[in-house]
Structure formats: C-alpha cells, structure tokens
Amino acid sequence: MIRAEEFERLRPLLFSIAYRILGSVSEAEDAVQDTWLRYEATPTRPTSAKSFLSAVVTRIAIDVLRSARVRREEYVGPWFPEPLLSDPYQDPERSAELADSLSMAALVLLERLSPLERAVFVLRDVFAFGFPEIASAVGRSEAACRQLAVRARRHVAAGRPRFEADRTEREELAGRFFDAFKEGDVDGLRELLAADVQAVGDAGGKAPLWGRGAFGVENVARLLAAFAPRFTGIGGIVEPCEVNRHPGAIFRDRDGKVLGAWALDILDGQIQAIRAVLNPDKLGHVGPVADAWAALREANAAFRCHDHRRSTQWGRAESR
User: Fold this and answer.
1) What is the pLDDT of residues 84-97, one digit of tens each?
2) Which is the most buried residue in 32, 71, 92, 173, by most CB within 10 A?
3) Range list of H helices, the chain
4) Which pLDDT belongs to residue 97?
5) How far apart are CA 215 and CA 132, in angstroms?
6) Among residues 315, 281, 312, which one has the least CA distance to residue 82?
7) Tens digit of pLDDT for each residue in 5-60?
8) Residue 306 — pLDDT band, cuts 50, 70, 90?
9) Which phi and psi (to 5°) does residue 261 adopt?
10) Signal sequence: where (predicted)?
11) Pairing status of strand 246-252 against strand 237-243
12) 51 lies in which domain range?
C-alpha cells in the first residue's frame, strides 16, 4: 500500500517528464504504467522513490523515443506533439520553466536533440535534477551528462522560443483573435498577427491541411477569414482553452467531436505562430474524434450553396 501511495504521489511528475521527452500523451502514459510495473516488481524498497521512479521512467522514455525517431522521419508533413490540455505536475518555484518547456514551439525544438540530450535537458533544465541523479537515470557518467547538457543547451539556444510574459495579456489577445476568426474579420485578424506570422498544420496525411502552411500577415489573415465561414456555417465550435500551457483552442463539429487543436505563440502583443494539430491519431485523448474529411465536404458544399444563392439574388437585383 505504501508503494502504491508513493507512486500515485509521484505520478504527475513522472508523466510530465515522459511527455516532455516523448511529445506524446499516449506514449507518456504507457511509460508511466511500465514504470509502476517495474517498481512493483522491485524486491527492495529504494532509498528515494522519486529518484528511482524518475530514473526508470526516463530510461523507458529514451527507449521509446529511439524507436519513434524512425517513424517520425517518415512522417507525412510537419510533426507536432500531441496537444496537452492540462499538465498534472505543478511546481510554483519552476512555473515559468514548466510552462515554456511544455509549449508546442519548445517541444518541436527538442526534436533536434538526440534522445540522451533531450532526456538530460528535460531533467536538468526543466525539473532541476542534480547530475548524480541524471547520471543514474541515463546510464552515463556525471561528466558525460554535463557535456550532454551543454550540447543540448547550445542546440536549444539557437532557436529558443520567446513568449509573452504576462499570462493575462496573452489570454486577452487570444480571445480577441478567436472572436475575429469566428467573425471572419480580416482587418481584425491583421491587427493581431505579426508581419511574419506562420500558420502550419500537422495532419500526418490523415486530415485536411492548409497545404504546406501559410506565411505572412496577409496570407494568414485571408486564409483564416476564408476558412471561418465554412467552419461556423456547419455548426463548428471554437472552444478557447490552454493548449500545452499556452493560449489555444479545440475545434469541434456540431456534435462536439474533435476536429483539431490550435496552439498560439504570442510575443510583443502579436501572434507569431499558429500550430494546428489535425492528425486524428493525436486527438483521441481529447475526446471522440470527428471525420474531418466529411466535415470539409459538408462545409464546402454548404459554402457553394450559399455562394450560389447570393449570386442568384444579385442577378435578380440587377435585372430589375
């Protein structure tokens, strides 16, 4: 019973470590479950349950990531992590590090690292583990772990994402953005988007996508304004929420089934990037997943019908 209680107390930390190493909710949950099975089978009680369990979940996550790398290299289009709507691990003293390390931008950046570099970076720079504990977790010497940390920081520093520091300001801007989107307000969208904004989606070849993405304020504003009436016209629902501890939204069909998750990067009072996770394989943990292709066909048909009616009305008006 004591072991089970210890494990449950540490489960949020273990999941948060595994998710940041793997970028997958389902794989992180599996890694945590495997960690429990190994802990339960250990004949002697470890001196530190936290150190032992963190080491076990890290080793499992490294092994999973090594095999996942092959799949990700063959992935169709951009690869984004599975969206996480709430981080179970909370630490007020490291709140900023935890939030920034969970963002879509940061997790995509960590894909540049080797599995060992990524694990060392997560344990050291995100969760502040000591090098003796990290060395035990990854099976390397302390000196080697220090070198891995230096290399990881160097890679990360080159593209480290920056975000709006004030959470209230971020949320207020995101609210204005989604209001402008739902109204198809091109001018309103332009005001909120950075000049070099990018809108990129991860569909994995299994859902409709915005081509290879849209870049620049004019292209992105027009893309969103054109998409909005099609989406709302079939009863689509935009549900603003935190996605990976940053402003975003879940998109649902009229029945509440999930079509996608959007995450926003906000800096200097403007939206720098919109990342949309559309691959249905990455959305099952959010809720029942909709048929995005069917929704697209319905939206296009409804829009063509609406456009035809408008053309007919204009024609009648001009003939009078």
Assistant:
1) 999 999 998 888 88
2) 32
3) 2-22, 25-41, 49-73, 95-102, 104-110, 115-121, 131-138, 142-159, 167-183, 186-192, 217-233, 292-319
4) 87
5) 45
6) 281
7) 999 999 999 999 999 999 999 999 999 999 999 999 988 888 899 999 999 999 99
8) low
9) -130, 130
10) none
11) antiparallel
12) 2-159
Confidence of residue 299 (pLDDT cuts 50, 70, 90): confident
CATH number at residue 68: 1.20.140
Q: Rounded to an integer, what distance in angstroms lies between the CA atom of residue 255 and that of residue 49?
A: 44
The per-residue b/e assignment along 95-117, b for 16 or more CB within 10 angstroms, e otherwise, is eeebbbbbbbbbbbbbeebbbbb
How many domains does the chain divide into? 2
Q: Which residue has the tokens 């988007």?
A: 193
pTM over 0.85: yes
Q: N- to C-terminal Cα distance for the chain?
A: 84
Average of per-residue pLDDT across 73-90: 93
Among the three residues 143, 159, 175, which one is the final residue of a domain in this structure?
Answer: 159
Q: Torsions phi, psi of 82, nearest 5?
A: -70, 135
Which residue type is seen at 286?
V
Report the residue count for the chain: 320
CA distance 313 to 57: 64
